[in-house]
Amino acid sequence: MPDVLRDPERRVQPVYLDYAATTPVDPRVARRMLPYMTQIFGNPASRSHAYGWAADEAVELAREQVASLVNADPREIVWTSGATESNNLALKGAAHFYRSRGNRLVTLATEHKAVLDTMRELERKGFEVTVLPVRPNGLVDLAAFEAALEPGTVLASVMFVNNETGVVQDIAALGALCRARGVLLHVDAAQAAGKVPIDLDTLPVDLMSLSAHKVYGPKGIGALYVRRRPRVHIEAQMHGGGHERGMRSGTLPTHQIVGMGEAFWLARESMRADNERIRAQRDRLWAGLQTIDAVELNGELAHAAPHYLNVSFRYVEGESLLMGMKDIAVSSGSACTSASLEPSYVLRAMGRDDELAHSSIRFSLGRFTTDAEIDFAIAQAARVVGRLRRMSPLWDMAQAGVDFHSIQWAGH
Amino acid sequence: MAYSDAVLDHYENPRNVGAFGKDDEAVGTGMVGAPACGDVMRLQIRVNSEGVIEDARFKTYGCGSAIASSSLVTEWVKGKTLDEAMTIRNTQIAEALALPPVKIHCSILAEDAIKAAVADFRSRRREAGAGSLTTEQPACASGTGGVR
């Protein structure tokens, strides 16, 4: 935050409530990683000496650790550079491999750009992509999803937990619909792993993207789950050496993989306790924010993972809110905070009008969030919202009972 | 997003926030932007009998750069005649606030707000009563017409 850098007196970093964007590496994970950079640094593919063997051993242990969080077979885990690459690999890899089955793909309007942009690219290459709308609560309608699985549909991609709202899709039901029609299901679980229980033994999911840096692991490493029973095939997108059973070539970054393994292992241990505490903190945050006038929740708490709170503060704009809450790190769905100057497409897909999207703030909680930080966030939000509302012509209109939706604006 | 010191200053210490009395005959009001675009500025000018702007008020719904642009404009119009105020250009605003390219449109909106306020004042004078202001700009939402 510019303020911290600008003011040398200020030693304190802002309170971090942006865990959905990324997480700090857990100190225990960082400690585990270090020896693999300086001491056990061998190339895991070097089969002829102890440096390689030691690195390979660590990689395979990490593979088991990752598999254990999602109840998969270690042989079903393919290392990638992150969930974005996993999404690309899953979608492009499966769409091309199963081209003879058809060329239709299905996804949701609320997916991450890594999925939507990849789908758009596949569309350019001749695939037909259906992007389904969602209901106001963010969930896809099961009947609509089923109807979209027309003959010739090869693959559907649905995110487990949404990164902006925390909405959790009914993957079990969607998977069953896909199975019944011979359609592969890819699930982007970047936000989900470590937050909600995932059991790939029972979930009818064929491909799943995983990310380390959303669950206290390092950035730059992820994995793609590729089901073995029944066998799922993908065409490699990275060639050169045939690593990862030919699915993803490239020297494996041992230290990164060790970090992801350890992070997933810790998540398995602490998920339940973390979630209980985070749920209480989220409820506390929401209760506190609700004391502010004209505040609306985006999404329903019942359908969202407890780590997320996406709130619109009516009549004030998101970027100015962020600027005022300079001691808190959060995100906004406002256009001004995006490179494209478009407001959050996820909120728009949920039927929230543009003004609500511009006024939205996403708070996301994590393992190291404290109650004091929650209280601080509430106080800051109340103060900044109050100040900005006193400066807002829309607030004036609302106070005067004018519905600005009925006004014809000059625009700009 | 790095903010210039000038923008931060106007954000932390906005000048002339508020509104003039609703029935003040010497006031012109310009309202530009749209909630759907994430930017709405209301600029009011109080003009004396010599046609000089003696006071100004603003309220803005928008990002830090939008708030700063409109706050700056209330300072700049004071003491100017209506014609002089109409010569204020967005490029001057953008330069004074060191706005990055992606925020230039905030300065354009502020320039438009001045024009709208002056137009409103003049039309009120002409019609000696309630006037409507029209500003024609490409809309990000829809339509022309405005609100006082």
Short description:
The complex is a heterodimer of chains A (412) and B (148). Chain A is an alpha/beta fold.
Major sheet of chain B, described briefly? 3 strands, antiparallel
Low-confidence stretches of chain A: 1-5
Radius of gyration of chain B, taken over Cα atoms and rounded to an integer in Å: 14 Å
Number of extended strands of chain B: 3
The coarse silhouette of chain A is globular
Mean pLDDT of chain A: 94
Specify the biggest β-sheet of chain A: 7 strands, mixed
Order of helices and strands of chain B: HEEEHHHH
Q: What pair of chains forms the biggest interface?
A: A-B, 34 and 46 residues
Helices and strands in order, then pairings?
The complex is a heterodimer of chains A (412) and B (148).
Chain A: H1 2-6, E1 15-16, H2 27-33, H3 35-38, H4 50-70, E2 77-80, H5 83-97, E3 104-108, H6 113-124, E4 128-132, H7 142-148, E5 153-159, H8 171-180, E6 184-188, E7 207-211, E8 222-226, H9 254-289, E9 295-297, E10 308-313, H10 318-324, E11 328-329, E12 331-332, H11 345-349, H12 354-358, E13 360-364, H13 371-390, H14 393-399
Helix pairs in contact in A: 2-9, 4-9, 5-6, 9-13
Chain B: H1 5-12, E1 27-34, E2 39-47, E3 53-61, H2 64-77, H3 82-85, H4 90-97, H5 104-127
Antiparallel strand pairs in B: 1-2, 2-3
Helix pairs in contact in B: 1-2, 2-5, 4-5
